Amino acid sequence: MSFSEILTKIDDLVWGIPLIVLILLVGLLLTLRARGVQFLHLGKAFKFMFKDEEDSAGEVSSFGALCTALSATIGTGNIVGVATAVCTGGPGALFWMEVAAVLGMATKYAEGLLAVKYREISPEGKVLGGPFHYIEKGLGKGWKWLAVLFSIFGLLAGLLGIGTITQVNGIASAVQNFFDPAKVSTISLFGNAYPTATVIAGIVVTICVALVIIGGLKRIAKVSEIIVPFMAILYVLCGISIIICNITEVPAAVVTIVKGAFNPAAVTGGVVGTIFVAMQKGIARGIFSNEAGLGSAPIAAAAARTKEPVRQGLVCMTGTFIDTIIVCTMTGLAIVLTGAWQVEGLEGAAVTSYAFQAGLPFLNSTVSAFILMICLAFFAFTTILGWDYYSERCLQYLVGDKKPVLMGYKVLYIIAVFIGPYLTVSEVWTLADIVNGLMAFPNVIALILLSGDVARETKDYIARYKSNVLK
């Protein structure tokens, strides 16, 4: 059995029915216990996003914390991940991705709330918080083993999975597909020949990553606050343009997506035969993209300047809305509307690139491909930055504030980014899926056991807000 086959079997085991059902059920549980917070208070959430609290402890603004979280979530999952989900699970995978996202908003809300409630702030003003703290402090010392387990998985996810290899691999592939799709120009490296565009892209990204992450959270947040909003708006405008240009095909595409969710064989011609495959691909890729339930976003949320856990929880849940309900939907619709998912020989970013070129007839195909390449490159770059912060905080929880160890980890992280472009795409994504799933288990268990805290904090805050005690 090959290494790739072994990884696939592990992935199928981790992302089997138990984890998918568990993540959906915890989202439903938190939706009920928080009284439909994602439906009733989304407006407040967007309001709080841009309005900081006065005289509150923390390292960055609420918007900065959100952008740091979004920098880690809006990445290759929105472009490559959605394409992979639709191509392997059929158009119905997009439906299940949306369902998971709606429930995931309540999950992300609870994560942000608990992160602020149980965070630790040093006398110097440094903040450390996330699932490892709300597991240990919220559930008690007897549960520290679960917090340690989460931190180990988070460390692996950052270094070997979602944080480095998948992102830089996506960037390098997009650059190579744009500048040298035929792989005419190559360079010998590590005993193999690689496209020159891939090598150059890998080196440039590695240097840029090194320059930013050595500056720590504030520099990451500052870069993210600039790049994330600009690139998200550009990408969404392109998606809206594709929908407008193909508006007559939208109803049929929606029918295809819904029909494919419950009867994939009828849409894919038997290639995808069961609902479970569509659900698995859609939910797995959706969670890979928005990270609801993984426990990553609350690490950034804990650093926000706020004294109200519920307030930051509301801001936190907008990340899932922006990432999946808006950005991933744009990608998925473009792929279904243009039939890109049915084109043989295409995979990953090439599928979305085809959709952009076919869906934007008023643009030169080269221009539309260039826009997608730029979006993917910047999305993935900021994801690398965000996950460096997440995985460093996991390491800090495990070993304490040992600066030589933390700096050594930064070096390892940069090395992982450097070698990422030269690894096989399928194996990279499978490995990322595995460590993502392993992260989710301890976090979801904690969210279930602490759902009472979420319910009490939510009820108290909303009562104070309605009585004009809060603004």
Q: Oligomeric form of this entry?
A: single chain
Regions with pLDDT < 50 over 5+ consecutive residues? none
Strands side by side in the biggest sheet: 1-2
Q: Largest sheet, described in full?
A: 2 strands, antiparallel
Beta-sheet strand percentage? under 5%
SS field, number of helical segments: 22
As a percent range, the share of helical residues equals over 70%
Describe the protein's topology.
Blueprint: H1 3-14, H2 17-33, H3 37-40, H4 42-49, H5 62-73, H6 76-89, H7 92-117, E1 120-121, E2 127-128, H8 131-139, H9 144-160, H10 165-179, E3 186-189, E4 192-195, H11 196-213, H12 217-245, H13 250-262, H14 264-268, H15 275-290, H16 297-301, H17 309-338, H18 349-359, H19 365-399, H20 403-419, H21 425-449, H22 451-466
Helix pairs in contact: 1-21, 2-7, 2-21, 4-17, 5-12, 5-17, 5-19, 6-15, 6-17, 6-18, 7-8, 7-13, 7-15, 7-17, 8-9, 9-19, 9-21, 10-11, 10-19, 10-21, 11-19, 11-20, 12-17, 12-19, 15-21, 17-18, 18-19, 19-20
